[in-house]
Amino acid sequence: MELNYSVVTSPPVAAASLVLLRDGAQGLEVFLVRRHQASNVLGGAHVFPGGKVDAADAAPAWQPLLDQPAAVLQAALGEAETDATTASAIFVAALREAFEEAGVLFAQASSPEQLAQVRQALREEVALRTALTTAGLGLSSRAVTPWSRWITPTSPSVMDKRFDTRFFLAAVPPGQTAVHDDFETTDSLWLSPRAALTQYWDGQLKFAPPQILSLSALARFAHVADALADARSRPPPVVRPEPFDEAGVRVICYPGDPRHSLPQAVVPGPTRLSFRHQRFEPEGGFEAFFN
């Protein structure tokens, strides 16, 4: 992963990402997809399914297909500056991207036949909203829980773009199998957070800092229910990284770090990452991810 040294002054683009979870034989596991190598955003890196919030995600026609009104979704995000229409669009984007990139549909009381109908419609390039309406389905916003919000600084470290990304947690619905779309994403796998970070440390996987610290946070939970309960117990924290260069090394500090403008940590895990050996490392080495 190459560092970016350019300054980006444009406003961050709204995005949503859904962290899919399941309980495996050894405990909590996370679904990761590998972005196409040619992608202009984190090409070749492993990420959680997600993408930009499209203008169409805010269309009024989505409202009858959601199981909760926009005002409730606005309150769930806990963002006073975000209006109800925008909040609803963020939820729609997260749910839409989970289906488009991972094949997982969070629908209200769906049957296997209805799911198959929607998947076939998507293969025929029918818009998801149209496919859901035809199948008599709606989206289940209750199935996903707002977890965190990451805002790219004006000096991004791994790309020349800025995003304002809301991350959600969700358990994969029973009977559904997550799989990459083989278009925007070219591979996928389930790993425990620790195993994922081990493979990152060994150079087998590439992660950007938000994924690194998200996996570090998830490693603290033994089961999906534990992670979801924690997310539901508090408002989603806002993470604003503050990068700087020290002795030729790019360092990103986070709330709670002595160099950060906010003295109180907002997420568990390391409060700074340094780019060494072609990877972002916490102070104290690999085990510091889990301290």
Q: Please identify the structural class as seen in this structure.
A: alpha+beta
Major pleated sheet: 8 strands, mixed
Q: State the low-pLDDT regions, or none.
A: none
User: What is the number of helical segments per DSSP (H or I, 4+ residues)?
Assistant: 7
Q: Give the beta-strand count.
A: 12
From the alpha carbons, calculate the radius of gyration and give it in angstroms: 19 Å
Helix content: 25-40%
Percent strand equals 15-25%
Give the N-to-C terminal Cα separation. 25 Å
Principal-axis shape equals globular
The secondary-structure element order is EEEEHHHHEEEHHHEEEEE
Query: Average pLDDT, to the nearest integer?
Result: 94
Kindly describe this structure.
The relative contact order is 0.17. The strands form two sheets. Strands 1, 2, 3, 4, 5, 6, 7 and 8 form an eight-stranded mixed β-sheet that branches. A four-stranded antiparallel β-sheet has the order 9-10-11-12, with no helix packed on it. With 291 residues, the protein is of the alpha+beta class. It has helices at 70-77, 84-102, 112-123, 128-135, 193-201, 209-218, 224-232; strands spanning 13-24, 27-35, 46-47, 50-52, 145-151, 163-171, 185-191, 238-239, 242-246, 249-253, 272-276, 279-282. The protein has seven helices and twelve strands.
